[in-house]
Design goal:
The complex is a heterodimer of chains A (about 270) and B (about 260).
Chain A: E1 19-30, E2 33-45, E3 50-54, H1 61-69, E4 76-81, E5 84-85, E6 87-88, E7 91-92, E8 100-103, H2 115-125, H3 130-144, H4 159-171, E9 177-181, H5 189-206, E10 209-214, H6 217-223, E11 226-230, E12 237-242, H7 257-273
Parallel strand pairs in A: 3-10, 3-11, 8-9, 9-10
Antiparallel strand pairs in A: 1-2, 1-4, 4-5, 6-7, 11-12
Chain B: H1 2-28, H2 38-50, H3 52-85, H4 87-102, H5 109-116, H6 120-144, H7 148-156, H8 161-198, H9 203-213, H10 217-245, H11 250-256
The complex binds adenosine-5'-triphosphate (ATP) and magnesium ion.
Magnesium ion (MG) binds next to helix 1 of chain A.
């Protein structure tokens, strides 16, 4: 079976960076006029925190993640990463995004690179030599459970395997901040549970800050230190809930009444939107 | 089964066309000066191939085409790469480019002959000029059609402009560049031959004119046959490159199946 193996691929423990969002508003101009995708987002994400964002489709989750990643400059408001402002006027502060790993909603692998080269690309860009890159890619493949596929083209992998390769790529620089946009959406329930466990382990070992977007309430409660629920468009912060369940959590925590009450609470809140 | 159908059907169609050609001449009693029968064209071609001078002419056309084509590839990809990346430059130059593209380049041959003489250079230049435009425009298109998600990945990794070009834009553009090259090699062949028609004493184009002036219609058809074979060989050589350069591309596996 293709599960993530429990290897301690040298995840150097390091402390993640905090993220601060102030008065974020994002407007888009569309052919039907201007729309407000996000408004009044004020959030302090602590260094090493695991924040999960939940919300109905189209509420601005991806947009918020893109703003944190520095891929999009919010129309209003300011973002600070590791104490440094993300934007100096119109230009992005490259040191602030220096150690960032992003897993996009689509795997976004490069079809012209082997899986190995895709995973090690972030290292290539920082000038790491080929032998080290190859070794690191091998370790990461093992970590996400796609060992043996290092030399294949992305087109030869299944959707779920491609997504794992994308996760491996995001981890390759030992990022201080990991942003994940529905990373496990393409996986079956069983694999998903295993990936969740594995992600928790990676996060606990590395100490990085994680912001993860999901549509699954269960996944959200399972992974989160804090859970942010966004309202439908225009996306606002609806609920910010601290999940007080001890770690490491195992799969059976889902039968815990405390876990279930969080789940039900979030479900009610989400249902109230429609 | 479908895999082999073209291997059988294509030659059959060819044979049928030749038979039709032969039958047409017999039935309507066409003068051999208008359209010679396939049998005499075949004989004339064999005579041509028996003459060592013919290979010299084939070689000249081959060299003109290939050299012109290679120049077009280098210049087209470099210029296309620059124009694809530098938006304002492309916008400034685009009226000029469109103008040059629309201009009938064949009309420039007398000028090329004045500039570069009756030798191979003027034909190489014409081949290059004809092949250059599809290669450049396809390169620009390729660089511009980089996937947004791929751009985001490079942005999130803080990649430099050069790194983004080398690792993402150029490989994304490759399938487009190859398409431009497939069109380009055909145009380069045409360029070299038309150049030979109009000036000089070498190449298949010159041979066609020479046989026509000698009223040797059979041999002229033989020369056309040789041109076609040369063009096909060059075209399929370029098509074959795709398999080596972009084995990752969807189109490549689909062909193999
Ligand atoms: N570049 C853009 N131009 C115009 N509108 C946009 C743009 N990007 C996002 N939007 C709009 O902003 C809103 C939020 O989009 P976003 O992708 O952030 O939603 P999401 O919460 O990630 O949804 P999903 O759960 O379906 O992925 C949507 O209404 C979308 O149409
Ligand atoms: Mg989204």
């Amino acid at each position: 079976m293709n599960t993530m193996k429990t290897t301690s691929a040298d995840l150097a423990p390091h402390v993640g960076a905090g993220i601060s969002l102030k008065e974020i508003e994002q407007r888009f101009s569309t052919p039907d006029g201007e729309i407000i995708a996000l408004t009044e987002v004020n959030l302090e994400i602590a260094a090493g925190e695991f924040l999960v964002i939940l919300g109905p489709s189209g509420c601005g989750k991806t947009t918020l993640l893109r703003i944190i990643a520095g891929l999009l400059k919010s129309t209003e408001g300011s973002v600070t990463v590791g104490g440094e402002p993300l934007w100096n006027g119109g230009t992005r502060n490259d040191t602030a995004v220096g150690n960032l790993g992003v897993v996009f909603q689509d795997a976004n692998l490069f079809p012209w690179m082997s899986i190995e080269d895709n995973i090690a690309l972030p290292l290539k860009l920082t000038g790491v030599d080929r032998a080290t890159r190859r070794r690191r890619a091998g370790e990461l493949c093992e970590l996400v459970g796609i060992s043996g596929f290092e030399k294949r083209w992305p087109k030869e992998l299944s959707g779920g395997m491609r997504q794992r390769a994308a996760i491996a790529r995001a981890l390759s620089r030992d990022p201080q901040i990991l942003l994940m946009d529905e990373p496990f959406g393409a996986l079956d329930a069983m694999t998903r549970d295993q990936m969740n466990l594995e992600l928790q382990r990676i996060w606990m070992e590395s100490g990085c800050t994680i912001v993860l977007v999901t549509h699954s309430i269960r996944e959200a409660v399972f992974l989160a230190d804090r859970l942010l629920l966004l309202s439908p468009r225009p996306g606002r912060m609806d609920t910010l809930e601290t999940i007080k369940i001890a770690r490491p959590r195992d799969i059976y925590v889902q039968t815990d009444p405390k876990f279930q009450s969080y789940e039900i609470e979030m479900r009610r809140r989400l249902d109230s939107f429609s | 089964m479908q895999k082999y159908s073209s291997l059988i059907a294509t030659p059959l169609i060819l044979v049928a066309l030749v038979l039709l050609w032969d039958a047409y001449i017999r039935v309507f009693d066409v003068s051999p000066f208008i359209l010679p029968p396939p049998g005499s064209v075949w004989e004339a071609t064999k005579d041509l191939l028996a003459d060592s001078g013919t290979f010299g002419h084939i070689w000249v056309t081959f060299v003109e085409t290939v050299v012109g084509f290679l120049i077009a590839v280098v210049v087209g990809v470099v210029l296309g790469g620059i124009l694809g990346k530098v938006r304002w430059l492309e916008q400034t130059l685009s009226p000029l480019i469109v103008g040059l593209q629309v201009m009938p380049k064949v009309a420039l041959i007398p000028l090329f002959i004045v500039w570069f003489g009756f030798g191979m250079t003027s034909k190489i230049v014409l081949a290059a000029v004809l092949a250059f435009f599809p290669i450049m425009t396809n390169t620009i298109l390729g660089i511009k059609s980089v996937d947004r998600g791929h751009r985001d990945v490079m942005l999130s990794l803080n990649a430099s402009r050069w790194q983004t070009f080398r690792d993402v834009e150029l490989p994304s553009a490759l399938p487009f560049i190859l398409t431009g090259m497939e069109v380009g090699i055909v145009l380069a062949t045409i360029g070299a031959i038309v150049g030979e028609y109009l000036g000089g004493n070498d190449g298949l184009g010159y041979m066609a004119i020479a046989t026509l002036n000698a009223f040797d219609v059979d041999a002229m058809f033989g020369v056309i046959l040789l041109m076609t074979v040369l063009g096909l060989v060059l075209y399929f050589a370029v098509v074959g490159i795709r398999r080596f350069v972009t084995p990752w591309h969807e189109a490549v596996t689909r062909d193999k199946e």
